[in-house]
Specification:
With about 120 residues, this protein is an all-alpha fold. The protein has 3 helices and no strands.
């Protein structure tokens, strides 16, 4: 049992390390967001599973499972919304990106502040 807990903690911690490396090494905001979402979600899940195994109490296990489900439901949605917002704000893609999947699906709005610093006139 202790071996399984130690393995979960080590793998979860390693995923956090990879998340940090991905945040530093990835070329654009979209790839960084992907690295942060996937690695951190799975890392938290593994650490919570280790805590649930270690304590073994019904309350702790229930809270860990509910937290894991919550993270797996909310992290992809949050990453998707952040990606759409970054794309709509015209954050540039990596220069070696081959496919621009948001081109026909995300409304890119012009910055509402004019060049002179004043908001555009209402018509």
């Amino acid at each position: 049992m202790i071996f399984a807990i130690a393995l979960l903690v080590l793998v979860g911690t390693f995923l956090f390390f990879l998340t940090g490396v991905g945040l530093v090494r990835m070329p654009d905001v979209f790839a960084r967001m992907h690295a942060a979402t996937k690695g951190a979600s799975l890392g938290v899940a593994l650490l919570l599973m280790a805590a649930a195994l270690y304590f073994g109490e019904t309350g702790v296990v229930t809270k860990a499972v509910v937290t894991i489900v919550f993270i797996f439901l909310t992290a992809p949605v949050a990453a998707s919304l952040l990606g759409r917002a970054a794309y709509a704000r015209r954050i540039p893609l990596w220069d070696k990106s081959v496919i621009d999947e948001g081109r026909n699906h995300i409304d890119v709005r012009v910055n509402p502040v004019a060049d002179n610093g004043e908001p555009p006139s209402q018509q």
